[in-house]
Amino acid sequence: MSDWPLWEVFVRARRGLSHNHVGSLHAPDAQMALRNARDLYTRRNEGVSIWVVPASAITASSPDEKDAFFDPAGDKAYRHPTFYDLPDEVQHL
Amino acid sequence: MDAITTPAAHTEFDAIIDTDGRIEPRDEMPDAYRKTLIRQIAQHAHSEIIGMQPEGNWISRAPSLKRKAILMAKVQDEAGHGLYLYAAAETLGVDRAELLDKLHTGRQKYSSIFNYPTLTWADIGAIGWLVDGAAITNQVPLCRCSYGPYGRAMVRICKEESFHQRQGFELLLTLMRGTPAQQEMAQDAVNRWWYPSIAMFGPPDSASTHTEQSMQWGIKRFSNDELRQKFVDMTVPQSEVLGVTLPDPDLRWNDERGHYDYAPPDYDELFRVIKGDGPCNRQRVERRVAAHEEGAWVREAAAAYAVKRAAEAELAA
């Protein structure tokens, strides 16, 4: 069982929403992973669509480099609407 | 290299804990924090799957199709809860097969409550109402556990446990509105499950070995005795609605404390059961090992089928 690959499971709760990560499971192949994901994560109609992704296929940013990695956005307050002071009487802006 | 990076990384961990943030799988964390979580999550996962046994015992004898369907759904939930938790434990770098092996060989424990037998149908109601009620009291604060994957698993579990507790209460209520024999059966089940249920919160604070450190780390939010009191306070009024008597002659409202006074469980018994000397310890582990061994062919067949399908796909390409 431990040599079965790990799959990350993503569920779309209903149409109009994106798939969200809900957890993981082990399964011998993608089809079994889908069936297991249905039984494990949608026993109460929590979803209308499921993705399973081999955990080994995910490339993740490193928590150690978090500061440097996300640093470029840190000093760009002008990307936010609240950066701009406008007269109170201006409407719809 | 380690000597330089480790202290700084622990400062980051401490900073997250201090601001009540969440630790995620790939973050640096102290070894003791990781070990504590693995021990606790594994024990929790084991409890879920061992917990399938006392209730599974009654599926074939449920008194109606409706009750049978409910009980099957509940036992399936317990299996699901076990899987959420094993997956959470695996994010800490342990292997599920290794955890199961430790359960099978007695090197990891499960909740003492599941070493008591389910003697009558009313026990299914008492388990839902009292045992799952105590579990929920324990588990709701765990949704805010400092370790992200554990907290998220607990959110799912708590949502589902609510059905478990309500079906148990309703089952007992149905018996209490039935014949004198049914009422007696319900009362007898409550008599037997009350003390094991309040013992589920663990030893008293004065004798609890892990509490202080776990509270500092944000794994635990309330002490054993605080949770026990909370459970007693919630349960006494429910027992009055049911019309059952909780088997504690000392149970009464204390105006000054704003809580119910109650006689504590027999902690010597709790420790005996945890150490392996409960009514069903041996049976539970034997059954688990047998289920694992008897299920080996299913795992092998699934693996063989996956290999065959992969080969077919390759030929077709």
What is the fold's blueprint, element by element?
The complex is a heterodimer of chains A (93) and B (317).
Chain A: E1 6-12, E2 19-26, H1 30-41, E3 49-54, H2 66-70
Antiparallel strand pairs in A: 1-2, 1-3
Chain B: H1 2-18, H2 31-50, H3 52-56, H4 65-90, H5 96-104, H6 122-139, H7 148-176, H8 180-199, H9 211-216, H10 224-242, E1 252-254, E2 259-261, H11 267-275, H12 281-294, H13 296-316
Antiparallel strand pairs in B: 1-2
Helix pairs in contact in B: 2-4, 4-7, 6-7, 6-8, 6-10
What features would you describe in this structure?
- The complex is a heterodimer of chains A (93) and B (317).
- With 93 residues, chain A is of the alpha+beta class.
- Chain A has a single domain (6-79), classed as Phenylacetic acid degradation B (Ubiquitin-like (UB roll)), CATH 3.10.20.520.
- Helix content of chain A is 18%, strand content 23%.
- Chain A has helices at 30-41, 66-70, and strands at 6-12, 19-26, 49-54.
- Chain A has a three-stranded antiparallel beta sheet with strand order 2-1-3, with helices on one face.
- Chain A is elongated.
- Chain B is globular, with a radius of gyration of 22 Å.
- Chain B has 13 helices and two strands.
- The model of chain B is unreliable at 1-5 (pLDDT under 50).
- The longest helix of chain B is centred in the middle third of the chain and has 29 residues, at 148-176.
- A two-stranded antiparallel sheet of chain B has the order 1-2.
- In chain B, strand 1 and strand 2 (259-261) form a beta hairpin.
- In chain B, helix 4 runs antiparallel to helix 7 (148-176) and helix 6 (122-139) packs antiparallel against helix 10 (224-242).
- Chain B has 317 residues and is mainly alpha-helical.
